[in-house]
Here is the input.
Amino acid sequence: MNREVYGKLIFELSRPGRRGTRPVDNSTDAFPRAELASELTRTSATELPEVDEPTVVRHYTRMSTNNFGVDSGFYPLGSCTMKYNPKVNDALSAIPGMARLHPFQPDATVQGALRAYWTLQRSLSEIGGMAEFTVNPYAGAHGELTGLMIIRAYHDERGDKKRTKVIVPNSAHGTNPASAAVCGLEVVEVASLPDGTVDVEALRPLLDDTVAAMMMTNPNTLGIFESSIPEIAAMVHEAGALMYYDGANLNPLLGVARPGDMGFDVMHINLHKTFSTPHGGGGPGSGPVGVRAGLEHLLPNPRVIRDEATDTFSVVREDSNSCGSVTPTVGNFAVELRALAYILTMGRDGLGMAGPMATLNANYIKEALRDVYKLPVDRVCKHEFVFDGLADKSTGVTTLDVAKRLLDYGYHAPTIYFPLLFHESLMIEPTETESRETLDEFIDVMRRIAAEAISEPDTLKAAPVNTPVGRPDDTTAALEPIVTYKQLRDK
Here is the structure.
């Protein structure tokens, strides 16, 4: 790959006087040219690139091929289920009658869309073992915040205002403590055992009448199922607190277990992970939130309800009993429509196979690589697992080097250096959508990299060599980001 060409900005391809089109003044007396009001016109010329049309097309086509996604290759990103998105779901969401709706149309004109919303809410309730769902939140973290708002409203409604603490395992996703803090709650960390599961004995003294909830992911961040969940749920409930389920790792439980049956009171689901809708790049996303019976009235406004007598649907925009409002509409409709299409095309049997297949694929890769990569937790995993870098650490080749070398072989790197339980964490999640052939090819490359680490470690430490950008200075990029061409030019 020619980094000199592929790495250039459109501004660097600009040449004075170049243009793609030349506007022609076709105004006539009958159709005079419209003049903009002076307050709408610029006082100085904009700094835009001057390029011809072929250059523009080629530049942005090259840029599009630089983006890695599930449509271009295997994406074993642990902690974020990057499964394939069926194109039929995209086609359905693009139907003009759906894509061109306005979120504030009269309910009578959008009965089909509202039925889709309601059907998705009921489907997610059945899948999660909850009484009701809202599809309003735009992302998983947004769902976490919504769920915690519901929990606060629950305690406030009971006059129990001293409950201001949320217990979070030290292996939790970073959004858990962040969401609790944004909701105005104090974060209390509970220790984990070596396998990443919650230390029940460490949890016991933390439970008192100031705890509002405990947030958990099950299976946990290491892909290990929390077998003590019945005991944990009983302890939390006995203390008067609620259980919150972070749905980031729901994928392996499909068709096998439901959070509601485990004792969770509130949960969110990442439609952009578990239900195969677009993911990454900051959006689009959707983080529906479900609640157990008795908490339905606290779900946020607005909400879609069904009149059983007439089989019609309406949007309730104001309800003083709710926890408030997190969005002005009932969510990201295009994403939710894709998720509903996925659920309906998979059906009960198909969804029931997703979890076991994700678990099978993860264990298949883990067992095939455990002799060359260090396996700190030697147990059957669920959808993902974590290596602690290479088994042979004498060469100084790090997890970062392995991840960078994978890019040269055409694979997106797995999650690295998370969870923080291990120094060289390498988290791999294959999902259920990958074939055995794809898994075998990935295993072969991972073994090849392990061999390179011994025979030619400098190659790994210099990787990647086949990408437009090699190894950027991450620290400088974070502290002194260059976000405009003017900054780059002046620099």
Summary: The two ends are 26 Å apart (CA to CA). The chain has three domains: 3-33+44-66, 87-345, 354-477. The first strand starts at residue 132 and ends at 134.
